[in-house]
Write a structure and sequence with these properties.
The protein is mainly α. It has one domain. It has helices spanning about 5-35, 45-60, 70-80, 85-105, 115-130, 140-155, 155-165; strands at about 165, 185. α1 (about 5-35) crosses α3 (about 70-80), α2 crosses α3 and α2 (about 45-60) crosses α5. The longest helix has about 35 residues, at about 5-35. The two termini are about 30 Å apart.
Amino acid sequence: MERREALVNISWMLKSAFLAPTLLTALQSCQEEVSKTNTLLVLDEYQNELIKSIADAIIPSTTTPSASDVKVNYFIDLLLKDVFEVDVQQKFLKGLLQFDESCESNTGKSFLKLTEKEQFSYLKQVDEDIMSKEYGDLVPFYFSFKVLTIKTYFSTKEGAISNLNYNPVPGPYQGEVALNKEDKITIGNRM
């Protein structure tokens, strides 16, 4: 690994270490507010439906709840209103619009008009293109959206309980533990 590459990787680790607790705290503080309301604060109905559809394609309903089942769309709406600055909010909404326009130019339909299978296929293509690259400060909308969706999902009670083996007081350290496909990931009070 070259020195420059190592410095870039270290800077990403430092950014993650600095920003992760802040984002997690913001997500957890929004959780109580989201459970009280079903009113949109920033998003219009079309944007809300688009966010639900994209989030549900990322985390679909299986034996566990989907992203919209745990109200990821309302979390994002609340984050846009209370946490993100106005310019970040506008960039997010512009990115959402561009995502839909890109989908329409590539498939001939808006993302909402695609069937569930077509949505998954389109997102798989976008995911392979975007998530496989490294970015500096300018991260594409889909990259940010996917990370935000996943972090929001696992910060909800339903998302954590149904997908993770939550143990608030973990036992002693166990170095090598066999993990079967049907096992849940064990977490403590910190993710």
